[in-house]
Amino acid sequence: MKAWERYITSVQDAVQLTYDTQENNIIAAANAFAGCTKEGGIIYVFGTGHSHMIADDVFMRAGMLANICAIVDPCVAAMNEITKTYLVEKIPGLGSIIVNYHRIKAPDVLVAVSNSGNNAVTIDVASACREKDVKVIAITGAGYSDQLRTLHPSGKKLKDCADIVLDNKSLFGDATVEYEGFDMKVGAMSTSTFCYLLCASLTQAVEILVEQGFHPDVYMSADKNGAAENNAMLVDKYFYRIRNL
Known about the structure:
Blueprint: H1 3-21, H2 23-38, E1 43-47, H3 52-58, E2 68-71, H4 82-88, H5 94-102, E3 109-114, H6 120-131, E4 135-140, H7 142-146, E5 164-167, E6 175-179, E7 182-188, H8 190-211, H9 227-238
Parallel strand pairs: 1-2, 1-3, 3-4, 4-5
Antiparallel strand pairs: 6-7
Helix pairs in contact: 1-8, 2-8, 3-8, 5-6
């Protein structure tokens, strides 16, 4: 197979593995999202480095719940000055500042995303939320994390600080494709399985709510009739509750 075929096959295999192994965790996460939504809470999604993209992917997005807040903090997100944010994400203590700034509290839910489950800021964010009785859902590579020494002084990894763990089954080192005569793997895959797991859980949450007779707030594609009115109403509803709307 060509490299592109091997890459797509590797991602498909990882997605299939999450399909085969994560049903109970997806349902648990979906129930947490549904309960949060029904009680008027906000679903916060946070990740440092490239993991911030998972938060972006579901925020103010067509077909997604409107009560989602992407915490994209420029001091730790790989948006700019990445050689600096790469170091800042390892500093203990910063996470609690982020949680307090967003005033996260029950019945809110936090989704903490980290492939390695190893960086101090994400662990701190998760720990600070649990101290406030906020349910924490970690999306992480559990097996990947097992091969690393945590960077947090508590000795904990992200999966140790969560109520529910969605395992993205990432390969150690993330990259997937090997080449003859080249000593490094190429082609990161974790983002794909992160997105599958989070979107699957949020989609299941909507089904749970509808079955309970609850009409959740969902953004529509701007190309559909009625979208402008629906989306403007939702922005007005959440504008003073979600800081980055």
